[in-house]
Design brief:
383 residues, 9-stranded mixed sheet, elongated, binds adenosine-5'-triphosphate, binds magnesium ion
């Protein structure tokens, strides 16, 4: 049996000039996802056909395409010569043992001897003859038999549509820099924004030797798990040890996290200029911890001119965990390595910081020099 994979994309967003742009990025992302697998891709209206792959690769192909945003659904179809006996044989192959069915037919080959209605009627009748257990239900069938008579003398027969990841092709909605801690939330935030078509790169802050090397490895693992969804990812790893030591030495310790967050976005903004990122993405959720109050978020936001996207702002932890499990980052996120935010953690972090107090604390530091030093020493990984 020879199969092809039909990849369909949602055409809702495709108006006018947008279409070519959307399709080009989707094609690029599909090629990238299928790197190393031999196959040919043919473009048709609203869909692609993948052909010429080894049968044993088909599951891997479906798995990888399940992470390419912009794909609405997929089907594995049997490819047969456009001949009614062959089409019937393939149709019987996709039938369930019992239940009701409906035959659907599309006919691009207008020279084919029967029209689509006639094909449906004939194949439907013959299925009923061959499988007395089955019935026809044109309104609410248990399954469909789909027949697609193509122009090139071949027909495709398939049953299921496997749901794709939906969303928009990554790269159609600009680029953002995800602040990727080792926690549960930030990978989920990156995934959500990538789903809307934004290219996402990552930035992680560590405080070695206060945080250990395993914590860094964990973040690299998380970035690798995200990168099939983001069509590759550049990960910036930034050492903030000196910044934390200086804050610890010179400032009111209760402001540690507040001040550190402001350093994070300043560094992210500088890197964004080279990276082409137009915004910062975080995994913050309102009220989840002391630093995620509206005052905390305002304080962080006022240290950068870039917009900060917080897709999880209105989510409960439970909802975030559910998503983290679905994208397979949860098991990594719960590995127990310390994040830099827990280094020098004060007993009573400020919950409602006021900008005037923050500025008083920051005046005790050489902010520009500390930022410059951290930026000069960034490690860059391409995943
Ligand atoms: P997460 O589960 O994403 O770590 P969290 O609930 O632990 O979130 P915080 O630790 O307060 O919350 O962090 C809030 C957000 O700040 C994170 O979602 C992330 O975007 C960013 N952030 C925090 N620490 C780091 C870090 N070490 N490196 C990069 N980004 C960080
Ligand atoms: Mg965290």
């Amino acid at each position: 049996m020879t199969t092809v994979i039909i990849i369909r994309y949602s055409e809702i967003y495709l108006k006018g000039k947008n279409r070519g742009f959307f399709e080009r990025l989707l094609e690029e992302n599909i090629s990238k996802a299928l790197k190393g697998i031999k196959c040919e891709r043919v473009k048709q209206s609203g869909r692609y056909l993948l052909d010429g792959y080894d049968e044993e690769d088909s599951e891997e192909i479906l798995f990888r395409l399940g992470r390419v945003f912009g794909i609405h659904d997929m089907s594995v179809a049997e490819k047969v010569p456009s001949d009614m006996d062959e089409i019937l044989r393939a149709s019987l192959n996709v039938c369930e043992e019992e239940g009701s069915f409906k035959v659907l037919c599309q006919r691009a080959d207008k020279s084919f001897s029967l029209n689509s209605m006639e094909i449906c009627a004939e194949i439907g009748g013959k299925i009923l003859e061959a499988r007395p257990n089955l019935t026809v239900d044109i309104h609410e069938p248990d399954f469909y038999v789909n027949i697609d008579v193509r122009e090139n003398g071949t027909s495709l027969v398939f049953k299921d549509r496997v749901k794709g990841p939906g969303g928009m092709p990554v790269g159609t909605a600009g680029k953002g820099l995800l602040l990727l801690s080792g926690g549960i939330d930030s990978p989920v935030a990156g995934h959500m924004i990538a789903k809307r078509g934004m290219k996402v790169d990552g930035m992680h802050f560590h405080s070695y030797p206060y945080t250990n090397l395993q914590a860094k490895e964990k973040v690299i693992t998380l970035a690798k798990k995200l990168s099939p969804y983001t069509s590759g990812m550049t990960l910036y790893i930034v050492k903030v040890t000196k910044i934390q030591e200086e804050i610890h030495k010179k400032c009111n310790g209760d402001y540690m996290v507040t001040l550190l967050r402001r350093f994070m976005v300043r560094i992210a903004e500088i890197v964004s200029q080279k990276d082409g990122a137009q915004c910062i993405i975080t995994g913050e959720s309102l009220g989840q911890v002391a630093s995620q109050t509206i005052e905390g978020m305002t304080s962080t936001g006022s240290a950068t001119t870039l917009p900060i996207l917080r897709p999880l702002v209105g989510f409960d932890k439970e909802e975030i965990i559910e998503r983290a499990k679905a994208i397979d980052t949860f098991s990594t996120s719960i590995e127990p390595f310390e994040d830099c935010c827990t280094v020098f953690l004060p007993k009573h972090p400020v919950i409602h910081p006021r900008l005037s107090d923050i500025l008083k604390e920051e005046a005790k530091l050489d902010v520009a020099a500390l930022v410059e030093e951290a930026v000069a020493d960034i490690e860059v990984l391409s995943l």
